[in-house]
Amino acid sequence: MSLRFVESSKLPTQWGIFDIHGFEDSENQKEHIVLTLGDVSTGGPVLGRVHSECLTGDALFSMRCDCGPQLQAALQQIAAEGRGALFYLRQEGRGIGLLNKIRAYKLQDGGADTVEANEKLGFHADLRDYSMCKVMCDHLGITQLKLMTNNPRKVNALTEHGIDVVERLPLRIGENPHNARYLATKAGKLGHLFDH
Ligand SMILES: Nc1nc2c(ncn2[C@@H]2O[C@H](COP(=O)(O)OP(=O)(O)OP(=O)(O)O)[C@@H](O)[C@H]2O)c(=O)[nH]1
Ligand SMILES: [Zn+2]
User: What are the catalytic residues (predicted)?
Assistant: First the structure.
Protein backbone atom coordinates (compact mmCIF):
# COMPACT_ATOMS: atom_id res chain seq x y z
CA MET A 1 0.00 0.00 0.00
CA SER A 2 1.34 3.40 -0.98
CA LEU A 3 -0.33 5.34 1.85
CA ARG A 4 1.84 7.07 4.43
CA PHE A 5 1.02 9.10 7.52
CA VAL A 6 2.07 12.75 7.26
CA GLU A 7 0.97 14.70 10.36
CA SER A 8 -1.70 15.16 13.06
CA SER A 9 -3.07 18.26 14.74
CA LYS A 10 -6.08 19.48 16.70
CA LEU A 11 -9.25 20.36 14.79
CA PRO A 12 -11.85 22.26 16.80
CA THR A 13 -15.40 21.87 15.42
CA GLN A 14 -18.84 22.87 16.60
CA TRP A 15 -19.18 19.34 18.02
CA GLY A 16 -15.89 19.23 19.90
CA ILE A 17 -12.13 19.29 19.54
CA PHE A 18 -11.15 16.45 17.22
CA ASP A 19 -7.68 15.32 16.17
CA ILE A 20 -7.09 15.42 12.42
CA HIS A 21 -4.66 12.89 10.93
CA GLY A 22 -3.37 13.39 7.38
CA PHE A 23 -2.25 10.64 5.02
CA GLU A 24 -0.86 10.76 1.48
CA ASP A 25 -1.04 8.16 -1.25
CA SER A 26 2.25 8.42 -3.15
CA GLU A 27 0.80 6.55 -6.14
CA ASN A 28 -1.99 8.98 -7.01
CA GLN A 29 -1.19 11.97 -4.75
CA LYS A 30 -4.60 11.69 -3.03
CA GLU A 31 -4.71 13.17 0.46
CA HIS A 32 -6.99 11.32 2.89
CA ILE A 33 -7.80 12.24 6.46
CA VAL A 34 -9.22 10.77 9.66
CA LEU A 35 -10.83 12.81 12.43
CA THR A 36 -10.68 11.11 15.81
CA LEU A 37 -12.14 11.94 19.18
CA GLY A 38 -11.01 10.37 22.41
CA ASP A 39 -8.77 7.35 22.80
CA VAL A 40 -9.43 5.09 19.82
CA SER A 41 -6.48 2.75 20.35
CA THR A 42 -7.81 1.07 23.50
CA GLY A 43 -11.21 0.25 24.93
CA GLY A 44 -13.11 -1.85 22.42
CA PRO A 45 -14.97 -1.16 19.16
CA VAL A 46 -14.77 2.42 17.88
CA LEU A 47 -17.81 4.27 16.52
CA GLY A 48 -16.80 5.03 12.94
CA ARG A 49 -17.90 6.61 9.70
CA VAL A 50 -16.13 5.98 6.39
CA HIS A 51 -17.25 8.94 4.29
CA SER A 52 -16.44 9.42 0.60
CA GLU A 53 -15.83 12.98 -0.53
CA CYS A 54 -18.82 14.82 -1.97
CA LEU A 55 -17.86 18.46 -2.46
CA THR A 56 -21.37 19.42 -3.56
CA GLY A 57 -23.07 17.77 -0.59
CA ASP A 58 -20.43 18.12 2.14
CA ALA A 59 -19.42 21.74 1.47
CA LEU A 60 -21.95 23.31 -0.89
CA PHE A 61 -25.23 22.23 0.76
CA SER A 62 -26.47 20.23 -2.26
CA MET A 63 -29.78 18.45 -1.78
CA ARG A 64 -29.18 16.05 -4.70
CA CYS A 65 -27.75 13.54 -2.22
CA ASP A 66 -27.69 12.82 1.51
CA CYS A 67 -23.94 13.25 2.09
CA GLY A 68 -23.92 16.58 3.95
CA PRO A 69 -26.48 15.60 6.60
CA GLN A 70 -24.78 12.19 6.98
CA LEU A 71 -21.40 13.85 7.57
CA GLN A 72 -22.80 16.20 10.19
CA ALA A 73 -24.83 13.45 11.91
CA ALA A 74 -21.76 11.20 12.07
CA LEU A 75 -19.64 13.89 13.72
CA GLN A 76 -22.48 14.66 16.11
CA GLN A 77 -22.87 10.99 17.08
CA ILE A 78 -19.12 10.57 17.60
CA ALA A 79 -19.15 13.67 19.82
CA ALA A 80 -22.15 12.32 21.77
CA GLU A 81 -20.26 9.05 22.35
CA GLY A 82 -17.11 11.00 23.25
CA ARG A 83 -15.01 8.64 21.13
CA GLY A 84 -14.85 7.71 17.48
CA ALA A 85 -13.30 8.11 14.06
CA LEU A 86 -14.44 9.71 10.82
CA PHE A 87 -12.50 8.61 7.75
CA TYR A 88 -12.81 11.22 4.99
CA LEU A 89 -11.75 9.57 1.75
CA ARG A 90 -10.96 11.68 -1.30
CA GLN A 91 -12.85 9.59 -3.79
CA GLU A 92 -15.33 12.13 -5.08
CA GLY A 93 -18.31 10.96 -7.10
CA ARG A 94 -17.90 7.29 -6.11
CA GLY A 95 -14.41 7.50 -7.57
CA ILE A 96 -15.07 9.23 -10.92
CA GLY A 97 -14.08 12.73 -9.74
CA LEU A 98 -15.94 16.01 -9.39
CA LEU A 99 -16.21 17.03 -13.03
CA ASN A 100 -17.37 13.59 -14.13
CA LYS A 101 -19.95 13.72 -11.32
CA ILE A 102 -21.25 16.96 -12.81
CA ARG A 103 -21.41 15.20 -16.20
CA ALA A 104 -23.35 12.40 -14.49
CA TYR A 105 -25.69 14.95 -12.86
CA LYS A 106 -26.36 16.45 -16.31
CA LEU A 107 -27.35 13.00 -17.60
CA GLN A 108 -29.56 12.56 -14.53
CA ASP A 109 -31.20 15.93 -15.31
CA GLY A 110 -32.06 14.30 -18.65
CA GLY A 111 -33.67 11.22 -17.07
CA ALA A 112 -30.88 8.71 -16.36
CA ASP A 113 -30.54 7.34 -12.85
CA THR A 114 -27.24 7.58 -10.95
CA VAL A 115 -26.05 4.13 -12.11
CA GLU A 116 -27.11 4.58 -15.75
CA ALA A 117 -25.38 7.98 -15.82
CA ASN A 118 -22.07 6.48 -14.67
CA GLU A 119 -22.38 3.70 -17.23
CA LYS A 120 -23.20 6.11 -20.07
CA LEU A 121 -19.97 7.92 -19.23
CA GLY A 122 -18.06 4.64 -19.44
CA PHE A 123 -17.59 4.10 -15.70
CA HIS A 124 -18.58 1.29 -13.40
CA ALA A 125 -21.41 2.30 -11.02
CA ASP A 126 -19.06 2.45 -8.02
CA LEU A 127 -15.28 2.72 -8.42
CA ARG A 128 -14.42 3.27 -4.78
CA ASP A 129 -11.54 1.55 -3.02
CA TYR A 130 -11.34 1.21 0.76
CA SER A 131 -7.91 -0.39 1.10
CA MET A 132 -6.38 2.79 2.58
CA CYS A 133 -8.63 2.43 5.64
CA LYS A 134 -6.63 -0.55 6.87
CA VAL A 135 -3.39 1.46 6.90
CA MET A 136 -5.19 4.30 8.69
CA CYS A 137 -6.68 1.93 11.29
CA ASP A 138 -3.33 0.27 11.91
CA HIS A 139 -1.64 3.66 12.34
CA LEU A 140 -4.31 4.83 14.80
CA GLY A 141 -4.50 1.53 16.69
CA ILE A 142 -8.14 0.95 15.72
CA THR A 143 -8.90 -2.76 15.72
CA GLN A 144 -12.72 -2.89 15.62
CA LEU A 145 -15.35 -0.56 14.15
CA LYS A 146 -19.03 0.03 14.78
CA LEU A 147 -19.73 1.48 11.36
CA MET A 148 -22.36 4.10 10.59
CA THR A 149 -23.54 3.29 7.05
CA ASN A 150 -26.51 2.12 5.01
CA ASN A 151 -24.19 0.39 2.53
CA PRO A 152 -23.54 -3.32 3.20
CA ARG A 153 -21.06 -3.42 0.29
CA LYS A 154 -18.91 -0.93 2.22
CA VAL A 155 -18.97 -3.24 5.24
CA ASN A 156 -17.96 -6.18 3.02
CA ALA A 157 -15.17 -4.21 1.34
CA LEU A 158 -13.71 -3.09 4.68
CA THR A 159 -13.94 -6.63 6.02
CA GLU A 160 -12.12 -7.96 2.94
CA HIS A 161 -9.34 -5.45 3.65
CA GLY A 162 -8.93 -6.91 7.15
CA ILE A 163 -10.96 -4.43 9.21
CA ASP A 164 -13.15 -5.97 11.88
CA VAL A 165 -16.59 -4.33 11.50
CA VAL A 166 -18.47 -5.66 14.50
CA GLU A 167 -21.70 -3.74 13.88
CA ARG A 168 -23.47 -1.74 11.15
CA LEU A 169 -25.40 1.27 12.42
CA PRO A 170 -27.88 2.81 9.93
CA LEU A 171 -27.34 6.48 9.10
CA ARG A 172 -30.66 7.47 7.62
CA ILE A 173 -30.90 11.24 7.41
CA GLY A 174 -31.20 14.00 4.83
CA GLU A 175 -34.04 12.73 2.67
CA ASN A 176 -35.75 15.44 0.63
CA PRO A 177 -37.78 15.74 -2.61
CA HIS A 178 -34.62 16.45 -4.65
CA ASN A 179 -32.85 13.23 -3.65
CA ALA A 180 -35.84 10.85 -3.46
CA ARG A 181 -35.08 9.20 -6.84
CA TYR A 182 -31.35 9.05 -6.07
CA LEU A 183 -31.98 7.31 -2.74
CA ALA A 184 -34.44 4.92 -4.40
CA THR A 185 -31.77 3.99 -6.98
CA LYS A 186 -29.21 3.47 -4.21
CA ALA A 187 -31.61 1.07 -2.51
CA GLY A 188 -32.70 -0.67 -5.74
CA LYS A 189 -29.42 -0.93 -7.64
CA LEU A 190 -26.56 -0.33 -5.21
CA GLY A 191 -27.83 -2.39 -2.29
CA HIS A 192 -28.25 0.35 0.30
CA LEU A 193 -30.48 -0.54 3.23
CA PHE A 194 -32.70 2.30 4.37
CA ASP A 195 -33.88 0.62 7.52
CA HIS A 196 -34.09 2.12 10.99
N1 LIG B 1 -20.98 9.21 -9.73
C2 LIG B 1 -21.84 9.74 -8.85
N3 LIG B 1 -21.43 9.89 -7.59
C4 LIG B 1 -22.31 10.39 -6.71
C5 LIG B 1 -23.62 10.79 -7.08
N6 LIG B 1 -24.24 11.26 -5.98
C7 LIG B 1 -23.35 11.16 -4.96
N8 LIG B 1 -22.20 10.65 -5.39
C9 LIG B 1 -20.99 10.30 -4.65
O10 LIG B 1 -21.30 9.16 -3.88
C11 LIG B 1 -20.43 9.09 -2.75
C12 LIG B 1 -21.27 8.79 -1.54
O13 LIG B 1 -21.83 7.55 -1.73
P14 LIG B 1 -23.27 7.16 -1.30
O15 LIG B 1 -23.73 6.09 -2.26
O16 LIG B 1 -24.13 8.37 -1.14
O17 LIG B 1 -23.17 6.54 0.11
P18 LIG B 1 -22.24 5.36 0.60
O19 LIG B 1 -20.98 5.99 1.09
O20 LIG B 1 -22.13 4.27 -0.40
O21 LIG B 1 -23.13 4.77 1.77
P22 LIG B 1 -23.45 5.40 3.17
O23 LIG B 1 -22.33 4.96 4.07
O24 LIG B 1 -24.73 4.80 3.57
O25 LIG B 1 -23.52 6.89 3.01
C26 LIG B 1 -19.70 10.41 -2.71
O27 LIG B 1 -18.38 10.20 -3.23
C28 LIG B 1 -20.51 11.30 -3.65
O29 LIG B 1 -19.72 12.29 -4.28
C30 LIG B 1 -24.01 10.60 -8.44
O31 LIG B 1 -25.14 10.86 -8.85
N32 LIG B 1 -23.08 10.08 -9.28
ZN1 LIG C 1 -23.27 13.59 -2.05
Answer: 126, 128
Q: Is the CB of 56 under 6 A from ligand 1?
A: no
Any atom of ligand 1 within 6 Å of the Cβ of 94: yes
Tell me if residue 103 is catalytic: no
At 121 the three-state DSSP class reads coil
For the domain that residue 51 is a member of, what is the CATH number? 3.40.50.10990
ipTM score of complex? 0.97
Is residue 112 situated within a structural domain? no
pTM for the full model? 0.96
Quote the DSSP letter at residue 45.
Answer: P
Instruction: Give pLDDT tens digits for 70-124.
Output: 999 999 999 999 999 999 999 999 999 999 999 999 999 999 999 999 999 999 9
